[in-house]
């Protein structure tokens, strides 16, 4: 069975995983998520702070169980520590500090970015 491994469980990673399930239902799709919140809405944080959204878990676009029900393997709390493109191998570490290796046929990296504060323009 062909294997797709996705690094990152926010919008890009989960969208890619769900689209892959639609287009290639015979593929094994695995997503490594560094925290325990797949498909979490960062933009919704102000609504949680203002208490319009009472539970942080409600900021998820999709719950982990819903994603799993669609045939996606989620590795929650797993941080990817290495990628060997020549061997098609990903090494990740879980929350307990245990490492595992995963072979892949295709790899998607959807980890997002780190924001920066732009320099101040003007007086």
List the helices and strands and how they pair.
Blueprint: E1 3-7, H1 11-23, E2 28-33, H2 45-49, H3 64-69, E3 72-76, E4 79-84, E5 89-93, E6 99-103, E7 106-109
Parallel strand pairs: 1-2, 1-7, 2-3
Antiparallel strand pairs: 4-5, 5-6
What does this structure look like?
This protein has 123 residues and is of the alpha/beta class. The protein has a single domain, classed as FAD/NAD(P)-binding domain. The protein has three helices and seven strands, in the order βαβααβββββ. The chain has helices spanning 11-23, 45-49, 64-69; strands at 3-7, 28-33, 72-76, 79-84, 89-93, 99-103, 106-109. The strands form two sheets. Strands 3-2-1-7 form a four-stranded parallel beta sheet. A three-stranded antiparallel beta sheet has the order 4-5-6, with no helix packed on it. It is globular. The mean pLDDT is 91.
Strand content range: 25-35%
What is the number of E strands? 7
Order of helices and strands: EHEHHEEEEE
**CATH class wording:** Alpha Beta
Name the overall outline: globular
CATH fold assignment: FAD/NAD(P)-binding domain
Count of helix runs: 3
Number of domains: 1
Distance between the termini: 61 Å
Query: What does the main sheet amount to?
Result: 4 strands, parallel
- Which architecture per CATH? 3-Layer(bba) Sandwich
**What structural category characterises the helix and strand content?**
alpha/beta
The poorly predicted ranges are none
CATH homologous superfamily name? FAD/NAD(P)-binding domain
């Amino acid at each position: 069975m062909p294997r797709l491994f996705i690094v990152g469980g926010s919008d890009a990673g989960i969208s890619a995983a769900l689209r892959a399930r639609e287009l290639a239902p015979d593929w094994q799709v695995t997503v490594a998520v560094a925290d325990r919140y797949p498909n979490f809405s960062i933009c919704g944080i102000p609504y949680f702070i203002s208490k319009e959204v009472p539970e942080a878990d409600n900021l998820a676009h999709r719950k982990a169980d819903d994603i799993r029900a669609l045939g996606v393997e989620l590795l929650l709390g797993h941080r990817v520590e290495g990628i060997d493109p020549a061997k098609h191998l990903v090494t990740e570490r879980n929350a307990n500090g245990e490492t595992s290796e995963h072979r892949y046929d295709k790899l998607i990296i959807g980890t997002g970015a780190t924001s920066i504060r732009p320099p101040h323009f003007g007086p």
